[in-house]
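hey so i finally got around to running the thing on that chain from the lab meeting. sorry it took forever, my laptop kept dying and i had to restart like 3 times. anyway pasting the input first so we r on the same page abt which one it is
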Amino acid sequence: MPESDPMDSAPFSEMTRALLAVRDQRDRTAFAALFDHFGPRLKAMLIKGGLRDGSAEDVVQDVMLSVWHKAAQFDPHRAEASAWIYRIARNRQIDLIRRRPPPAPELLAEPEGREPDGAQILALEQEARLLRAALSRLSPEQTRALEMAYMQDLSHSEISETSGVPLGTIKSRIRLGLERLRGELKDLEE
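ok and heres what got predicted. didnt touch it at all, straight out
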């Protein structure tokens, strides 16, 4: 029994057939058709996703180069060509965003000649005293989790690793501790 051509066995889209031609015959004309079709669409998607400094074009070039090199990995029975190519683009975009340093926080300049007055200082001291008292009424575990999260600026995962307590437990302690603090300090909001 002769082996059937995979392009005849299923109704594939035009772009999927082009990608199969690139995969099976390294067809440059089919690749050009893919590039002409997906290039502008990928660029628009990347720009909409926040790549505005010319990096969208670079990512499109990188994605299409990956399509050429990784075409052998494409399986038309698992995904259409468009889904496969857009997934590569999305992953490249995420990688690029992760490599960028986070934006530096803006420094707020305090107006000159504005020293806090006695009433402000007294109010802050009273609020701090009330917060310390409310924290002392929490369980030691909740207090420790809140201190690690908000005073040591650790993520929930880092707190879990440091303390050896499961992540879900850490999240619960922080959530319940914050709810209790909100209840006890609701008078400060006014």
